[in-house]
Design a protein that fits this description.
Two copies of one chain form a homodimer.
Chain A: H1 8-19, H2 35-50, E1 54-57, E2 63-67, E3 76-82, H3 95-110, E4 120-126, H4 139-144, H5 163-170, E5 187-195, H6 200-203, E6 208-214, E7 216-225, E8 229-230, H7 242-258, E9 263-265, E10 269-272, E11 278-279, E12 282-291, H8 294-314, E13 318-326, E14 330-331, H9 334-345, E15 353-357, H10 362-366, E16 372-377, H11 393-429
Parallel strand pairs in A: 3-4, 3-5, 5-16, 6-15
Antiparallel strand pairs in A: 1-2, 2-4, 6-14, 6-16, 7-12, 7-13, 8-11, 9-12, 10-12
Chain lengths: 430, 430
C-alpha cells in the first residue's frame, strides 16, 4: 500500500524512490545524460501523468509536464527544480522541489481547481543543475532558458566524452538543443521550492522562508608558480615554495571573508610535482565567491586579489588568475515573492524569514525568460551535498501547503492583473 | 674519437651517455628494475671492464666491479653511488659518483698502482636510491647492506606491479635477495662522491667539500579531518574547513623551521572531495623533516605536532598522524673523512668546507655494514632533482684528483693500521 503522494510522507517516500536511480552502489550520484538520468525522468514522468499532466522530455533532456488551465493554450506558471545530483549526494537537493511540485499539481487536479486556473500549470525537472558531469552548472535550465552556449559542446566528462557525444548517446540531437528554449510570451513565472542548504531557518526555529535574491557566484582558477627543488638541499632563503604561498592565500581569503558579508571557499587545490621530498613548484587552486549583491562580491574579489599578489611577490612567486564562472545575483520578483509570503502565512507564520540564497539554483537561469520566486524549507544543520542531508516531515507538510497556497495567490494576482490589462485595452479600444 | 674517460671531460661525456637510457622521450627517468636499469648497468659494466675490473650484477640488481689489490681476496674499499634517477632528473645526482669512481679505478690500474693497494678496490652502482618506482628509497643499497625488509615485496609501482613481480620480470630471484648482502669482514670502508644538491659550496666559492653527517629524515603523513559541506550554504561559524586548517599547518611548519637548524617541507597535499563548491572535508599532506642531528629533528617535530594539534582544535578539526619513514642521521667515519680532507688538500684547498648532507645517500644504508665517507662537489645554484642540474668541468677535475688522492690516503692509513695490528698480534703470540 503506497502512501498518498500529495502528503509530506508521500513526498519523502518518492524522494527515497529516486535515490535508487544512482550510478554508485552505496551512494547517490545521478548525472546529466546518464542511464540514471533517463530512468529518473521515466519515474517522475509516471508520477506527473498520474497527476493528470501531459509530459515530454525536451531537447536538452529536461522532463516537462503540463496541465491546461481554464482554457487550453494559456501561458504557464512553471513549478520545478532539478533531478540531477552531486557525487555522494543527499536525497533532497533539487528532487524535493520537483516532487513537491508534482504533489501540488495533483492536489489541484484532484478537486478540479486546476481547470479553473487563469494559466496553465507546468512542471519541470531540470536535467542538469549541479554540473557534476561536465563541470559546468545549470546546463539543463540554461537550455530551457535560451542561454545555451555552443562552446559547451566541447566540454568533456572525466572519461573524455564530449557533451556533444553524450547528447547523441542519450538519443538527443545536438542541432535541436534550441528547441528546449522557452518563449517568454508562453510563461507567467516560475516558482521553485528547495531546501535551504544553510542553517538560518533552523537557527530561527522556522519551517519555511522566502528568497530575496539568489547570490551570483564568481569562480576563479588561481595558479601559484614557484620553483620545484630538492627538499633537502635548498635552504629557506633560496626557496620559492608555491604551496607555502598558496597556503597563505587560502588563510587570507578566509580571514577577509569571515568579517564580511561574502562567502569565499577554496574547495580544490593541487600541488605539483607532488613529491614528498620536492619543494612544490606549482599549486592550482579554485576560489568560489558569493554575496547578496554583485558590488559586495566584486569589491571583495579586488581586495583578495591584491592581497594574493602581495603574498606572492614577497616570496618571489608568480600568480596567474583566470575567471572560470561569473553569474550576476538574481533578485526574485516582488509579486512572486509576495505570493510565496502569502503562501507561508497560510501555515501560520505571518512574518516569514527572508533570506538570500548563498547557493545557485535553476531559478537563476530561468530568470532569463520569466520572473522567479523561491520557497525555502528548513534542513538539518545546514547540511547539503552530502548523504546526511535531512528535511523534517512537518516542514515538508507546511511547505506543501504554502507552495499550493502560493500558486493560488499567483493565480489570484495574475487574474486580477490580466483583467485590469484587458479592461484598459477595452477602454482604449472603446 | 672519444674523450679520455679518466678526465673531467670524459666523466661528463659518460654522464651524458647514461642520459640516453631513459624511459621518457624528452626527459630523464631511470627506475629500479626497468629496461633502462638493465641497459645502464650494461653500459657502466663495460666501462668498469675497460678499467680492468671483474663485474657482476648482484641479487638486487646492483652493478658491482672488483679489482684485486696486492694479493687476491683482500677486504675491499668500495667506491660508489647510484645509477637510478627521479622523474625528470638531472644527469649527475648519483651517476657522477659512479662514473668518477670508474675513472679513479682506471687511473689506478693504468699505471699499476691498483695492484699495490693493501685492499681490493670495489665499485658499486646502486640500483635504487631514489625510490622513484616503489616509493621506498635505498632499495638497492639496503639489499647490499643487509637491511632488506621482506615486507617490501608487497610494495607496488604506479601500474600495480609488486616489487616481488618486478624482481621476477627482471630475471632476479626474490628468494635470493640476501645474496646481495655484504659481510662486513670483507669490507674496508665506503667512499662516495656526489654533487652537493645545495648552494653552500657555491656560496663559499669552493669546488669541493667533505660531509660530516648525513641527515636522517623523518617523514609523516598528516590527515586533517573536517566536514565536507556546501560552500554556499555554510556560514563560517559552522565550517570545519580541513583546507584552511591544513594551510595554517603548512605556514606554521615553515615559520618554525625557518628560524631553526631544521629543514621541513610539505611536498604533497591533496584535498577531498575537491569540488569547487564544496568545503574541503579532508586534507592529506606529507611532511619531510631533516636536521644534522636526530635530537634537533625530533624536538622540532614535537613542537610542530603540538602546534598542528592546537590549530586543528581551534577549528574543530581532527588531526591524524602516521610516521612513514625514519632514518637516523649517519655520521661519516673520522678516518675516512680525514682521507677525504687530505684528498681535497692535494687540489690546493687545505681548509675545505665541512657540510652536513641535507639529502639522503646510499652511504646511509652502507653504514650498516662498513664505515663511510663522502666527498661533495659544487653544483649550480643548488639545483638538483631537475634537468637544470649542473656541475662545472673544473670542479669535476678537482673532484677526480681529490677522490683518487683520498683512496691513496685510505690505503696509507689502512696499511699502517693493518701493520700495527699484525705487530701487536705477533707480539702477543710471541
Amino acid at each position: 500500500m503506497s502512501t498518498d503522494p500529495t502528503t509530506a510522507a508521500g513526498v519523502l517516500a518518492r524522494c527515497d524512490e529516486l535515490d535508487r536511480h544512482s550510478s554508485l552502489p552505496d551512494a547517490l550520484e545521478r548525472v546529466y545524460l546518464s542511464p540514471q538520468h533517463r530512468s529518473a525522468n521515466e519515474l517522475a514522468a509516471g508520477w506527473m501523468e498520474a497527476a493528470g499532466l501531459r509530459t515530454w522530455v525536451d531537447a536538452a533532456g529536461n522532463l516537462n509536464g503540463r496541465l491546461e488551465g481554464r482554457e487550453p493554450g494559456l501561458p504557464a506558471l512553471v513549478l520545478g527544480s532539478h533531478l540531477d545530483t552531486v557525487t555522494d549526494a543527499g536525497s533532497y537537493d533539487g528532487m524535493l522541489g520537483v516532487v513537491m511540485a508534482i504533489a501540488v499539481a495533483q492536489r489541484l487536479t484532484a478537486d478540479g481547481r486546476a481547470s479553473e486556473l487563469p494559466f496553465a500549470l507546468e512542471l519541470v525537472g531540470f536535467s542538469d543543475e549541479e554540473g557534476t558531469r561536465f563541470g559546468k552548472a545549470l546546463l539543463g535550465s540554461q537550455a530551457w532558458s535560451r542561454t545555451w552556449d555552443p562552446d559547451w559542446w566541447d566540454l568533456r566528462d572525466a572519461n573524455g566524452v564530449s557533451l556533444h557525444q553524450a547528447f547523441l548517446d542519450f538519443g538527443l540531437d545536438p542541432r535541436r538543443v534550441g528547441d528546449a528554449g522557452r518563449d517568454p510570451a508562453t510563461l507567467v513565472g516560475y516558482l521553485e521550492a528547495h531546501i535551504e542548504q544553510g542553517p538560518h531557518l533552523e537557527a530561527a526555529d522556522a519551517s519555511l522562508g522566502y528568497v530575496t535574491t539568489i547570490a551570483g557566484a564568481r569562480r576563479f582558477h588561481l595558479v601559484v608558480h614557484g620553483e620545484a627543488r630538492h627538499a633537502g638541499g635548498t635552504p629557506y632563503e633560496r626557496r620559492k615554495d608555491a604551496l607555502v604561498g598558496a597556503s597563505e592565500i587560502v588563510t587570507a581569503i578566509e580571514r577577509r571573508a569571515r568579517v564580511s558579508t561574502c562567502i569565499a571557499t577554496v574547495g580544490r587545490l593541487s600541488v605539483h610535482p607532488g613529491g614528498v621530498n620536492v619543494i612544490p613548484g606549482r599549486v592550482d587552486l579554485s576560489l568560489d565567491l558569493r554575496a547578496a549583491t554583485d558590488p559586495e562580491r566584486d569589491e571583495m574579489w579586488e581586495l583578495m586579489l591584491a592581497e594574493a599578489q602581495e603574498l606572492c611577490a614577497e616570496r618571489g612567486l608568480r600568480l596567474e588568475v583566470a575567471e572560470t564562472h561569473s553569474a550576476p545575483a538574481v533578485p526574485c520578483a516582488g509579486w512572486l515573492t509576495d505570493a510565496v509570503v502569502a503562501g507561508i502565512a497560510t501555515t501560520g507564520d505571518t512574518e516569514p524569514m527572508g533570506l538570500w540564497s548563498r547557493a545557485g539554483h535553476d531559478a537563476m537561469a530561468v530568470a532569463n525568460v520569466t520572473e522567479v520566486g523561491m520557497l525555502f524549507l528548513r534542513c538539518f544543520d545546514g547540511i547539503s551535498h552530502h548523504p546526511g542531508e535531512q528535511v523534517r516531515e512537518v516542514d515538508v507538510a507546511a511547505g506543501l501547503d504554502a507552495f499550493e497556497a502560493a500558486v493560488l495567490e499567483v493565480a489570484r494576482d495574475y487574474a486580477e492583473r490580466t483583467e485590469r490589462t484587458e479592461r484598459t485595452e477595452r477602454a482604449e479600444a472603446g
